[in-house]
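Onboarding guide, step 5: your first structure request.
Type a short instruction followed by the sequence, for example:

Predict the 3D structure of this protein.
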Amino acid sequence: MNYDKDKVDEMTLALLYLVTSNVGGQGRAWKGPNLETLLRLHKKGWISDPMGKSPSVDVSPEGMKKAAELFREHFAKE
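The system replies with structure tokens like these:
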């Protein structure tokens, strides 16, 4: 799929804002999604429980379908 990499970069930066703290006049962000957000995705049945020791989560078939739909909606180029 051909997609808008600049738009993906901008959305990624916007999502990093959720996990950024102000340190000495600049931000410091965790390299992963916000835990509260992951817990909401888990509650919706789209991912496995993010509270385990694994650094990754499983994405359910429903989550994969929704993720692909959202990616195309927001990033696909005509």
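Each response can be followed by summary notes, for example: The chain has a mean pLDDT of 92.
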